[in-house]
Amino acid sequence: MFEGIIPALVTPFKENFDVDFEGIGKNLDYLERYVDAVMPAGTTGEAATLSYEEHIEVVKYVCEVSKKPVIAGAGSNSTREALFLAKEVEKAGADAAIFVTPYYNKPNPEGLYKHYNTIANEINIPVMVYNVPSRTGINVSADLAIKLSKIDGIIGIKEASGNLKQIAEIIRNTSDDFIVLSGDDFLTFPILTLGGKGVISVAANVAPKLMRDMFIAFKNGNLKEARELHFKLMPLFDVLFIDTNPIPVKKALELMGLSAGKPRLPLVELSSEKTETLKRVLESLELI
Fold first, then answer.
1. Is the pLDDT of residue 283 over 90?
2. Under 8 Å between Cβ of 210 and 285
3. Is 104 an annotated catalytic residue?
4. Residues 68, 158, 197, 251: which is the catalytic one?
5. Is the sign of the CA dihedral 60, 62, 66, 70 positive or negative?
6. Superfamily of domain 4-221
7. Which pLDDT score is estimated for 254?
8. CA 217 → CA 62, 84, 231, distances in Å?
9. Which helix (H) or strand (E) holds 5?
């Protein structure tokens, strides 16, 4: 249910920066032929600048219109706030919730364990951990991830540490039904070869079919084809991080005629020079 290609959805905005719900629906129409689940209200969805009301409404709307399982972002650096969001996205109809590690306040491993244990004990939908130390300043070590995997209700981890040794240790020392997903498009193919189950992806917003083709080739045992598709996608993986996510992916969707809008401050629109670089990559993949 929570494996394969899972786009971390962009939150489109109107010109006045209100949430463009119709735009979310338009993007889902484009994506859902190819993806296995969707994830609203995460980093790529600009959750950091959504109000709680907007956050919950975005999740509720995606749950109502999507034909795929929904993993809703619900993280916070406050356990109480994360619990509030968790309960709200559960009521909104999410099939699971994902929680970024508490950022800025940098809890120690005991605090991280209690944070996730508290959440898992308080809600009735599955919980996923999101480890992205480049943004949060804190790492979920392999030892801690293994310990968290034993908590009832915690079903997996989105791993964006970039540390393949750490990821391999998690996969090696957790049960087969514990879901390890890549949180970095570039590492999807390597993580699949280690036993990972898929990716929560930025690139899948733009090139869902190519991402799906790579995953299916891998699942069918055609490693040569999967590797070739990985190499084909590498320029896209790179250019979507030519600036802070989700600045480039929003511009890519705009260039493709999909819904995006400008990011909310303090993020700004992609520069004209970087936009030209992005265009060249999209053209090379026949996406525009």
1. yes
2. yes
3. no
4. 158
5. negative
6. Aldolase class I (3.20.20.70)
7. 98
8. 29, 40, 14
9. strand 4-7
pLDDT reading at 1 higher than 90: no
Which runs of E-coded beta strand occur in 65-220? Answer: 71-73, 96-100, 127-131, 154-159, 179-182, 198-201
- Catalytic residue, chosen from 30, 130, 251, 262, is 130
This prediction has a pTM of 0.97
Q: What is the distance between the alpha carbons of residues 288 and 276, in angstroms, rounded to a whole number? A: 13
Element (H, E) at 230: helix 223-239
Ramachandran category for residue 75: left, alpha or beta (phi over 0 → left; psi -120 to 50 → alpha): beta
**Exposure pattern of 194-212 as b/e (b: 16+ CB <10 Å)?**
bebbbbbbbbbbbbbebbb
- DSSP letter at 101 equals P
Task: Answer for the pair 62, 97: CB distance below 8 angstroms, yes or no.
Answer: no
Establish whether 158 is a catalytic residue.
Answer: yes
Assigned token pair, 93: 């109809």
What is the average pLDDT score of the chain? 98
49's tokens: 């600048």
Res. 39 pLDDT band, cuts 50 70 90: very high
Residue with tokens 């514990």: 178
End-to-end CA distance of the chain: 31
Q: Are 262 and 249 in contact (CB under 8 A)?
A: no
CB 181 within 8 A of CB 158: yes
